[in-house]
TrEMBL record:
The keyword Transmembrane applies. Keywords: Membrane, Transmembrane, Transmembrane helix. This is Uncharacterized protein. The chain crosses the membrane at residues 37-57.
């Protein structure tokens, strides 16, 4: 698991570096199509950065349902 966190950290650093390199040309837009391209690029960056940050911080992706134990099943069962 440690290598997975290291890989996620490296991907996060790489995406931040690419954003750092692209930021100066973000303000020099040509037209509407260029604006849509940069908007899509920034949304993609946020998705990549968010997923890698969640991996580094070990945020669970979903809830895990646990089955009740035998004692709890007996306690909640209807007696006859």
């Amino acid at each position: 698991m440690k290598t997975m966190r290291q890989n996620a950290l490296l991907r996060l650093l790489l995406s931040c570096f690419l954003l750092y390199m692209a930021w100066p040309s973000l303000q020099v837009q040509g037209g509407t199509l260029a604006s849509y391209f940069w908007l899509a690029w920034l949304v993609f960056f946020l998705l990549v950065a968010g997923s890698n940050l969640a991996t580094v911080m070990k945020i669970p992706t979903g809830t895990q349902l646990q089955s009740p134990s035998a004692a709890e099943e007996k306690r909640y069962s209807v007696s006859r």
